[in-house]
Specification:
Length: 365
Amino acid sequence: MGNPHLELHFDVNKTVLVDDKVQGIDPETACNQILYWSSWGTVDGDVWRWDGRAPTVDRYGPGTTLFGDFVDARPELDKRALKNGFTSPGYPGERLRVHYEMMLRALALSPADKAALEGVAWAEEVGLHRGVVRLLPSFFALLQWLSDERQDFALVFRTFGADLPEVAAELNAFCRGDHPSYPSARFDGTTAAPDLRLDLNNPERFGSMHRGGEAGTKGEPLCVALGVLDAPRGRDQPPYQNPLAFYAKRAGNLLDSRRAFHAHIRGGGTFAFRDDYSGWARAGFEGPAGKPMCVDTHDTQNVRVFFDDNVREDAANIVDLRDATSGDAIAFEDAIGRCLVRVDPYRAVTDERYFIDALSHCLRS
């Protein structure tokens, strides 16, 4: 029996992109934020001390405390300053500066690539003219590996933010062979490799998720507005109003269920969807209102995997993972490492094989 068809869902921010140009988070700040949430140490009274081990989202064992959790338990501390400057001189993560510098080196474009991108319209749109990568090398390495393995697969980008046009611009340049870091890449339909270009002029390839019926105030039902990426003003602010009429007037087509959504993206190529942050916020940022994905655990020929850095160590959290037949939630212990990957941003930046190894583990499980 041949390889299964893979449907790979990727969160964007802190999963395949590090900095956030839309929110003004530069690479240096992003690296500090990543280390803030992946550095473990011991607590003595009101003092946290790094234990000297490499950053990771995975707990090292009893008695270790993540610095971000240490700060969360102390409301008197300036969380924003500690997170954004974590490894700066005089900060608790100063000893982790070597890991911060390692991340920045891994993110830096070569001088030749930076020069080749000067004055290139798509590169300036994406922000590559600053000399730092946007889509991670480990993500592009995964695409090349899947092609070399003759693996049939589709890409589905999932985000709460407004970063999909930037993702499309860089991905499409990579697919055309216009990215100087990957001059031999061709994923535009001109070779045996799959066409992975994301066409934001084709409404069948992108859309927005909506939860909550006509008024957008309930948890269910779910619908997907194809051809729409913008959102109502104030959607992401309390009281998180998100009426269906906004999407119904703009959509080329409305998919009215999870089943219809997954039937639409079945096959190859690349899709992109803006998930419903307002619905997740109204539900108290709990998993049942997160980014929806259904999995048929008995279908070995069609495998879905969701990669997201906001998966917790003990809960799917941001991903609303359901059984495709029953609609019931899939237990976290049955999903993690199989159809759900808790992305480690530090390793995704510093290890070019990170996504290859993570997916390989899922396929073996």
